[in-house]
Amino acid sequence: MDRPSSHNTALRHLLVVLAGALLLLIPGLLNQEPFLYRDTTTYYKGAETGIVRLLGDRFSLGEPALADPATVDPARNLPTVDGGALTSVDDGVVIAGRSVYYGVLVYAALWLGSLFYLAALQALIVSYVVHAFFRVLMPQALTLFLPLLALLSLATPLGYFTNLIMPDILAGAAIVIVAILLTRFAVLGLFDRVCLLAILVLALLGHSSHLLLVGLMLGLGIVLVARHGWRRLRDPALLLIASALLVGFAGEQAFNFAARQMLGSAPLRLPHLSAHLVEMGPGTEYLDEHCPEAGFAICADRAKFPIVWTNFLFNPDPRNGVFAVADAPRKRAISDEQVRFAFAVLADRPLETMGGFSLSFLEQLGRFKLDELYYDADSFQTFATRLPASEFRRVARSAAAGHGVIEDWLTGSTYLVVLASLAIIAAMQWRLWRSQRAIGGDLITASWLILFGVVANAAVCGIIASPFDRFQARVIWLVPLAALALAMAWRGQSRISAARETSPAD
Predict the structure, then answer these.
(1) Residue 82 in domain
(2) What is the number of helices (H) and of strands (E) in the chain?
(3) Does residue 464 belong to any structural domain of this protein?
(4) For position 80, what pLDDT does the model report?
(5) 172: nearest Cα among 486, 410, 480, 423
(6) End-to-end distance of the chain based on CA atoms, in angstroms?
(7) What is the count of structural domains for the chain?
(8) What's the distance, CA 270 to chain centroid?
(9) What values do phi and psi take at 88, rounded to 5?
(10) How far is 121 from 255, CA to CA, in rounded Å?
(11) Backbone angles phi and psi of 164, in degrees to 5
């Protein structure tokens, strides 16, 4: 008797999720094309190269735009620098962490004819995950789901990252999924469990930073269960998240194995730690005092230091770059030595190094400006030399290929929304302290797990890499979601308390 009703409810939920996905696609539709980042082409080319090597040249998506001069507007004056490249398949240099699995999705979207296919998938993922959060943790607020998505899509970076062809949006989705699984696993149906697990695995395969992020959240869940006996954090959920982490790690190892078989050498990790320590100061001071006796490959570059970490890693100009301009053996040496270099600097300057990492973490917490929406000349150089000509033409016609003030407007609105959300969170905590009520429950726990995920993201990105606005902007939209959840939890608890106070005695 309940089956027609349950089918109607499922259909209604599906339509709402689809409506949410359409709201999230608005920024991309206004741009007339999903947004790209310089690294987008690395994901695409890595996947295309592997597919062509396995299946043949017929699976190539065509020559890049610069192979056809008619596709490039000469007025853009694309820069040319006589320097090195970050990757070189011919030399066996492939960068680890730039997921070939996400690259396959980029390749598939281009093969189908439009990157909007991937943007639509990302929009569906975000809409479904946020809707699941509402549905299982605060069903009384389901009417706020679409208005909240509209607000977050247009007044925070959520809409931009949903339409950005990068795995960044999956970091926020993973945080929400972990919060749902840890608090409401018992009430989830089989469909939700399978879908949430599949999205979590995709996120973990999407970028190596997501493995660290989810690993920290899992560690917090284990600590809460072990030390505080939070029975609501169910053991099956912990095992499920741990299994997803194992799949993500196994996926990375499988890629490394395949790269060794195809190229004869393992993929390289970008030397983020070395670049950060050099820019921060302790690394440069250590090199000045201990080179060349220390034996580090970057001793040869110490005259360039200190330099900004992005120049260390990516600058193709031999006068300012380090990693990108190095030949293949030296790239491998710089990559392989970064952990040893970090420990050497830490042992030599412990207070300076730990203080610098702490400041980087705090700086990353507050850095979420949106300042790369429009494409500069370097980005166009990258797109023109790596994207298929047909896709480059679409990119060149998009709004992001021009200039505007949307970045400033969106940055301002984001900071206003986040500050208002933090004020709400502080107000909820103040009321809790004043009332002396023991307000708990799954929604409160899930909200603080999400906020912990935002903080953990700042730690992973700000310390291991370096403070960079895009790193925190990708998850900052979670702060308003957590603030709304805390407000709804307080409202529900207050109503229960008021009902108890006004009910007649037995």
Answers:
(1) yes
(2) 22, 0
(3) no
(4) 39
(5) 480
(6) 37
(7) 2
(8) 17
(9) -155, 105
(10) 23
(11) -85, 130
Tokens encoding 329: 């053996």
Q: Do the domain assignments include residue 439?
A: no
Question: Rounded to an integer, what is the distance from CA 261 to the centroid of its chain?
Answer: 29
- Residue 80 φ/ψ region, left for φ over 0, alpha for ψ in the -120 to 50 degree band, beta for the rest: beta
**168 shares its domain with 309:** no
Task: Pull the structure tokens for residue 73.
Answer: 């507007």
Q: Which of 311, 346, 365 is the last residue of a domain?
A: 365
Residue 386's alpha-carbon distances to 16, 44, 84, 280, 395, in angstroms, are: 38, 9, 15, 33, 13
Tokens of 253: 């190892």
Do 306 and 171 share a domain, yes or no? no
CA distance 342 to 453: 25
Together in a domain, 285 and 236: no
SS3 414: helix
Q: For every residue of 460-503, which 3-state class applies, written as one string?
A: HHHHHHCCCHHHHHCCCCHHHHHHHHHHHHHHHHHHHHHHHHHC
Same domain, 202 and 53: yes
The reply to whether 89 and 231 lie within a common domain is yes
Q: pLDDT at position 264, please?
A: 73
**CB count in 10 Å sphere of residue 257:** 11
The model scores a pTM over 0.85:
yes
Neighbours of 325 (CB within 10 A): 21
Confidence (pLDDT) at 474: 96
Residue by residue, what is the 3-state secondary structure of 21-80? HHHHHHHHHHHCCCECCCCHHHHHHHHHHHHHHHHCHHHCCCCEHHHCHHHCCHHHCCCC
Per the CB < 8 A criterion, the answer to whether 33 and 156 are in contact is: no
DSSP 8-state code for residue 372: -
Last residue of a domain, one of 365, 391, 413: 365
CA proximity to 163, closest of 200, 206, 205, 120 = 120
Whether 185 maps to a domain, the answer reads yes
Q: Which of 374, 491, 376, 475 is CA-nearest to residue 427?
A: 491
- Full residue range of the structural domain in which residue 17 is found: 3-265+370-404
Mean pLDDT by 10 residues, the chain (506 residues): 68 93 96 93 86 86 64 44 51 69 94 95 98 93 93 94 97 96 91 96 94 92 67 72 94 84 78 94 94 92 91 88 89 93 95 96 95 88 87 92 89 96 88 58 89 96 93 96 88 57 52
**What was the pLDDT predicted at 88?**
58
Tokens describing residue 60: 């190539």
3-class secondary structure, 233 = coil
Per-residue tokens: 293:
């006796």
